[in-house]
Structure formats: structure tokens, C-alpha cells
Design goal:
By secondary structure, this protein is an alpha/beta fold. The chain has 14 helices and 10 strands. The strands form 2 sheets. It has an 8-stranded mixed sheet, with helices on both faces. Strands 5-10 form a two-stranded antiparallel sheet. Helix 6 links the parallel strand 2 and strand 3. Helix 2 runs parallel beside helix 11, helix 3 packs across helix 5 and helix 10 crosses helix 11. The radius of gyration is 26 Å and the shape is elongated. The N terminus is likely disordered.
């Protein structure tokens, strides 16, 4: 008996043993390579927050300040359009897509709304004939609209509506979250009144579009939204915070996606291992190990970085059921925008029940559906919030 046990122990621990191979692979991957490669990846479990968060946050703020200055120079050098209807919104053309930028006065040195507007303007020019049916509308929700300096500059290039409250008596029930919701309702309503578009993309003034946004939206509007369950959705989110995109999450769809990743990579890595070692090509314990190995690695490195691979083509973008946070970029069809307006007017927002949670709550109370597009089609660059004051913001 002792001799047999010793033989079994020897088979497990000799260098040619699969157990030794897999143990070394696990230790090398999770103990050495992944920490070395991923310690600066902001949305990875291997991220060394104590080392990198403060300098990375300061670098991001400085870069964002420079991008704000570049956006200011972009519009200072841009020729004012000769066609006055383009800047006033007086043309009778019904656009396929209206991009409505909601803006409020913030830190002057970052020029958030100029960054967003300059990117959309440049991308529309780059898109050319395919985007001739798109328009941009500015919605100024500053309590005193004339105090918003960046909007005064932009009004020469884009049509604008303003939510002027200067002559109104303050409502004692009004708080910042309710004001934000009412501003959102105003901008959505004005978008329908001014242009009556088929689709409205409501963008907050710190949500900079990705380079491929119009190519992806073109594919979504003309191809994917032909499916009735998508066409009738209340809204589509084009942004979800990267820190909330992990697989280990209560949302069932992500768990299924995670399991599917393991089922795909498990047999593939087993085949690679079998080919490299000259062993039988299929072994259930090895398949299970490599499935768990690939699932753990993808979660620890970060699902966000896996999603980035989908940017290779518009057809690879994913549409999955929505989660409650947040609203930097929201796409509505005209009928769904009217439904959302009716719903939101009947809700009162407060701390803990902001407009994003209010919209999400409608899905259950009104029997609606909504979806999120992955990966994100905008970058949230506004570290200085108009709702929550913070003199020392951080990336996380």
C-alpha cells in the first residue's frame, strides 16, 4: 500500500505531470505575469491603486484641461457657417438622428461642452454623406443662460435652446436632482419640438464621443433596430461606467457571457496544451481547468478590456438588457421619447432617486424594456460634477 501511494505521489510531482504543468501555469499567470502587466490598468483587479491612482488622476485632469483648450481653439479658428438656418435650427428638414447636448456652466478651464461639441462636429464632417441626415442641438440649462460663456461661442455654429429660470419664483420642493430631471425633460421635449427627429441622442456635456460612434449608430439604426423588441425599447444607453462592467455581477446576462467564455476557451486551451505536450487531444479535467483558468483571468484582468475587442467592427457591438446607472449618453426613438417624457413628468427626483434611477424604475412599473450598447460609445471625462462638489476628484 505504501509503495502504491509513493508511486502515485511520484506520478503527480514529476516534471512531465499535467498537475505540475498546470500548477506552474497558474502561479506564473496570477502571481507573476498578470500583476506585472496589469498593475497600471485602471479597471483591473491587479491595479495598484495606492501607487498609481493619485498621479494618474492628476495626469488625466491635466490632459483634459489641454483638450479643453484645444476645443476652444478649434471653434475660434472655425469659420462661422454662411447658412444661418444651420445655426438657428430653422430648416424644415426632419433628421434621422438629432444629437442634443445638455450643458450647464462648470469649471471654465476644462471647457467640457466645447470638447463634446468639437468632437461631434469633427466626426460629422468626417462621416460625410452618410451623416447628412444628422443634426446637433445645444440645450443650455444654466439658470442664467447668458452666463454660460462656452455656449455663447457655440451659438454661432449650432442651434440652441435655453431653459431660462431667471424670472421664476423658486420652488421649495426643488432640489438639484429634481432640477436635473426637469432640465432633462425640457431638453428632450425641445428636441422633439424643434426638429421632430426619428431618433434623439441626448448627451451630457462631459460625454466625449468615440471615433466610431456614427458608424456604429448607423448600423444600429438601419440594421439592428429592425427587430421589434429593440425598436420598441424605451431607451438605449451608450455608456456604462467601466468599474461596473465586470463579469462577477448579479446581472444574469453577464454570468451567462462569462460561462460562455469559459466553454469556448476551455476546449481551445486544452487542445493547445495537448498539442504542445503530445497528450490525448481531449480530457474533461483539463477542459474544466482551462475553462476556470480563462474565466478567472478575464475577470481579474477586467471585462472592460475584453469588450474593447468588439470595436473592430460595428457588427460586433453587443446589445444587452440595461442596468440603472448612468445617463451620459441616451438614445431614444421619437415614440419612446414621448413615452419617457410622460413618465418622467409624473416622478419627483431626490437624493438616492436621481433621473437615471427614475428611468430605470419605469421599466418595472410601466412594463418597458431598455438596453445598453457595449462597449461604450462615449468617454465620460467630467471629473468635476455639477451635482456633487469635489475639489480633489479621482478616476475611481
Amino acid at each position: 500500500m505504501l509503495h502504491q501511494a509513493w508511486q502515485l505521489y511520484g506520478r503527480w510531482w514529476r516534471w512531465s505531470s499535467p498537475f505540475i504543468h498546470l500548477l506552474m501555469l497558474t502561479v506564473l499567470t496570477f502571481g507573476v505575469l498578470a500583476p506585472l502587466i496589469c498593475h497600471r490598468l485602471l479597471h483591473s483587479y491587479f491595479y495598484l491603486r495606492r501607487w498609481h491612482l493619485n498621479p494618474m488622476s492628476q495626469d488625466f485632469l491635466e490632459q483634459n484641461r489641454q483638450e479643453g483648450q484645444a476645443a476652444l481653439h478649434y471653434f475660434e479658428k472655425l469659420q462661422i457657417p454662411n447658412n444661418t438656418s444651420e445655426a438657428s435650427g430653422s430648416d424644415a428638414f426632419q433628421p434621422l438622428l438629432l444629437v442634443t447636448i445638455i450643458t450647464v456652466q462648470r469649471r471654465d478651464d476644462f471647457h467640457y461642452v466645447l470638447q463634446v461639441a468639437s468632437h461631434f462636429h469633427r466626426l460629422l464632417q468626417k462621416c460625410g454623406a452618410r451623416c447628412q441626415s444628422h443634426r446637433i442641438l445645444l440645450c443650455n440649462v444654466e439658470s442664467d443662460p447668458s452666463s454660460h460663456q462656452d455656449v455663447r461661442l457655440l451659438s454661432s455654429f449650432f442651434p440652441m435652446v435655453s431653459h431660462d429660470r431667471t424670472g421664476e419664483n423658486p420652488d421649495p420642493r426643488m432640489n438639484q436632482f429634481e432640477k436635473e430631471k426637469q432640465d432633462y425633460v425640457f431638453c428632450l421635449e425641445q428636441s422633439l419640438l424643434v426638429y421632430n427627429p426619428e431618433y434623439i441622442l441626448v448627451v451630457e456635456d462631459d460625454a466625449v464621443p468615440e471615433e466610431e460612434i456614427f458608424a456604429v449608430l448607423q448600423h444600429l439604426l438601419l440594421v439592428r433596430f429592425s427587430k421589434p423588441y429593440l425598436r420598441d425599447a424605451l431607451y438605449f444607453k451608450l455608456y456604462h461606467p467601466e468599474r461596473l462592467q465586470r463579469y462577477f455581477n448579479p446581472e444574469p446576462m453577464r454570468i451567462l457571457e462569462w460561462l460562455g467564455l469559459g466553454m469556448f476557451l476551455g476546449p481551445m486551451l486544452n487542445w493547445v496544451y495537448s498539442w504542445a505536450t503530445g497528450r490525448p487531444s481531449f480530457c474533461w479535467p483539463l477542459v474544466l481547468f482551462f475553462a476556470l483558468y480563462s474565466m478567472a483571468l478575464s475577470e481579474l484582468v477586467g471585462r472592460h478590456y475584453m469588450l474593447e475587442l468588439r470595436r473592430l467592427a460595428p457588427t460586433l457591438y453587443n446589445i444587452v438588457p440595461v442596468t440603472e446607472c448612468c445617463t451620459p449618453a441616451m438614445l431614444f426613438s421619437a415614440p419612446s421619447a414621448r413615452r419617457a417624457l410622460g413618465y418622467l413628468k409624473g416622478l419627483h427626483c431626490r437624493q438616492g432617486f436621481a433621473k437615471d434611477i427614475a428611468l430605470y424604475s419605469l421599466l418595472h412599473t410601466k412594463g418597458e424594456n431598455a438596453y445598453v450598447v457595449e462597449p461604450n460609445l462615449v468617454r465620460h471625462v467630467g471629473m468635476y460634477s455639477s451635482l456633487r462638489l469635489n475639489d480633489n476628484p479621482k478616476l475611481l
